[in-house]
Design a protein that fits this description.
elongated, Prevent host death protein, Phd antitoxin
Length: 62
């Protein structure tokens, strides 16, 4: 995993030059959530994809 600084630099490099502070704040928020999700998955594990598919199918067949 890259460092937080590297992730932010990459994110800023992908934003248009006319990005607002609100745009940057939003993208930082999303980046933080993604990094937290990856960390949580590494620490606690995850749900197998097949199990997720079964749960989602149940939601739509009711």
């Amino acid at each position: 995993m890259q460092t937080a600084k590297q992730d932010v630099e990459r994110m800023l490099g992908q934003l248009p030059d006319d990005a607002t502070l609100e745009d940057i704040e939003y993208h930082l928020y999303v980046l933080k959530k993604i990094r937290n999700g990856i960390r949580r998955h590494e620490e606690e594990g995850g749900i197998p994809q097949q199990e997720v598919k079964e749960h989602v199918q149940q939601w739509f067949t009711r």
